[in-house]
């Protein structure tokens, strides 16, 4: 498989879009009621994918992919987006984003367990370095367990949702590669995600704030880009160089943090950047210690 085939390159474009997603979603949810804002974004995402790809042919798809991977996709999107909406301030957004970025090293581990990658023992070191980097981001005083628990207690639901999402996405990635068999049900997954978000909005009896024109434009553009990114990622998982794509995802913490700093006007500490770099360094170790089967 060529390292830089078309599927791999479009996977890179998805990563660039995701890197700015956290900050933009936070801006939109701050101006509107949170769940309805997310539902609006994903309604545009669903429409974009349907226009570009149409409805998939369900009869040709394995049930494991359609139902299993579909459930994982929908659950991840809702958990991650709601965790962003539940953040109390921009500093918490950065922490939630970093918790979510556990999914790249976890994808390596899950791919190894699924026998999709061969590995050497340094991959364990790389994973540990990445986790230590994440812990440093959450709590600069990394050895102070009491302080770590205090930080988590400030918003336990949001942090738990982000962590649970970080577990679900690697499952989706690994199972998609195994069961999709060249099929793409992402349009259906997005429709179900959008409908589910609207259902949550109405069940919560959340007030609906009608967006102004500039906010409608931001929602439409964001939704369209998100839809394109996920559609591209699904194809890149099946036909691209998964090892190279996984490596690229490790640079998302640095890029996403930089974009969030600019968009949200947040000011990450030095320990935050050191932790972010450790995540990337651990990724490099993992990447060098694995090979596609």
From TrEMBL:
Key words of the record: Membrane, Transmembrane, Transmembrane helix
Domain EamA per the UniProt entry, residue ranges: 157-285
The keyword Membrane is assigned to this record: yes
Keyword Repeat among record annotations: no
Transmembrane residue ranges: 7-28, 34-52, 64-86, 92-114, 121-137, 157-175, 187-204, 216-233, 245-264, 270-287
UniProt cross-references to Pfam families, sorted A to Z: EamA
Listed InterPro entries: EamA_dom, EmrE-like
The protein's name: Aromatic amino acid DMT transporter YddG
Organism: Acinetobacter terrestris
């Amino acid at each position: 498989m060529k390292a830089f085939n078309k599927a791999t390159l479009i996977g890179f474009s998805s990563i660039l879009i995701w890197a700015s997603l956290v900050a933009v979603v936070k801006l939109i949810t701050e101006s509107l009621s949170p769940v309805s804002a997310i539902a609006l974004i994903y309604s545009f995402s669903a429409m974009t994918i349907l226009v570009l790809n149409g409805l998939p042919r369900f009869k040709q798809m394995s049930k494991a992919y359609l139902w299993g991977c579909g459930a994982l996709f929908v659950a991840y999107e809702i958990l991650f987006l709601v965790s962003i909406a539940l953040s109390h301030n921009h500093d918490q957004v950065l922490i939630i984003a970093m918790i979510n970025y556990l999914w790249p090293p976890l994808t390596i581990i899950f791919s190894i367990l699924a026998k999709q990658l061969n590995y050497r023992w340094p991959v364990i070191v790389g994973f540990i370095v990445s986790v230590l980097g994440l812990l440093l981001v959450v709590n600069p005083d990394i050895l102070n367990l009491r302080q770590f628990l205090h930080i988590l207690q400030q918003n336990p639901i949001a942090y738990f949702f982000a962590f649970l999402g970080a577990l679900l996405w690697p499952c989706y990635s690994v199972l998609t590669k195994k069961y999709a068999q060249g099929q793409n049900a992402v349009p259906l997954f997005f429709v179900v995600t959008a409908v589910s978000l609207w259902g949550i909005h109405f069940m919560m009896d959340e007030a609906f704030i009608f967006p102004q024109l500039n906010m409608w434009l931001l929602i439409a553009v964001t939704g369209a880009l998100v839809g394109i990114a996920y559609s591209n990622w699904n194809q890149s998982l099946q036909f691209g160089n998964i090892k190279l794509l996984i490596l690229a995802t490790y640079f998302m913490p640095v890029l996403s943090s930089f974009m969030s700093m600019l968009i949200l006007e947040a000011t990450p500490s030095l320990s935050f950047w050191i932790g972010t770099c450790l995540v990337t360094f651990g990724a490099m170790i993992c990447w060098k210690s694995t090979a596609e089967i």
